[in-house]
Amino acid sequence: MPREHSQANLARYGRLMIPVFVILICLQLFMMQLVLSIDAGDRKKAVQQSEDVEQNAEAGLDPVQASNGKPADPASPNREEDPAVTVLPPVPREEILRSVPAAGKKVALTFDDGPSSSYTLDYLKVLRENQVPATFFLVGRHAQKNPSLVTMIAGEGHEIANHTFDHPDLRKCDEKAITEQIARTSDLLSQWSQQEIKLMRPPGGNISPGLSKVVAAMNLRIVMWAIDPRDWEKNKTSEEIIESVKKDLQPGAIILLHEGKPQTLKALPVLINELRGDGWDFVTVSGLIGGEDR
Q: Is-catalytic flag, 258?
């Protein structure tokens, strides 16, 4: 190809590219201007929103009510509540607790007389495998022999409660003796569990006027039960325990069981599966009455 012809082509291509470059530069300038305009608009909107929030706060309006111009009222029932959250009515502390019907299809498993060096670990294994929290009413002298079990029960998320130190019939004790039985046990249990001891159960369910007075003074709550399958009886079978619990089941029931019973241990996983299959949930006693479920 002649050299003159090649140079002519290059010159022609150069003249064609100039308009292209000009268009590209114009587009770039346009895009920059557009971005700046949007950014300025966002800043203006943010400033306006900030001013609106300040004005609403001064007028006593919350973000939901601001659009309606209504003042915020913490006691007003107009606010939409989460339907999944159930607020239970408070249970008076002086009331002896047997069940909480307002809790609906929730029950509390409770275990008395532990900790047991022979059975506690097995009970914990069943509860852990089924992800069930429970409340353990521990005897002080047993806990003193097995402090590591107290720590383990609490460490696995269960609630620790007071079942006196020597498991006496408190109807036969004066107020001084009752105070010593309860206070000594609570001190040991709180030390080893790192929990505040809030609940106590009198051995055998034996209550006296002196007990109620002492418990109230110590800011504790007496917990009894709604269901007692009498798992401690001689020759009681695991099937009978399960049948008894299911027969008497009611909303918010507190179920009485005992740690040192092999028949109760055998019944426990079956009982949990059958109740859960019927739609029942398991909580601690504090969870049942609306406290923090451990």
A: yes
Is 230 in the same domain as 181?
A: yes
In a domain, 230, yes or no: yes
Closest CA to 134 of 116, 109, 160: 109
244 and 112: one domain? yes
Distance CA 202, CA 136 (A): 13
In degrees and rounded to multiples of 5, residue 160 shows phi and psi of -100, 130
Please tell me whether residues 133 and 252 are part of one structural domain: yes
Residue 274 lies inside a defined structural domain of this protein: yes
Single-letter amino acid code for the residue at 79: R
Among 82, 158, 258, 278, the one annotated catalytic: 258
Active-site residue, 73 included: no
Distance CA 51, CA 178 (A): 63
Digit-coded pLDDT (tens) for 61-109: 443 344 344 333 333 333 334 444 455 556 666 689 999 999 999 999 9
Model pTM score = 0.70
Q: Tens digit of pLDDT for each residue in 184-196?
A: 999 999 999 999 9
Catalytic residue among 112, 142, 158, 163: 112
CA distance linking residue 106 with residue 95, whole number of Å: 20
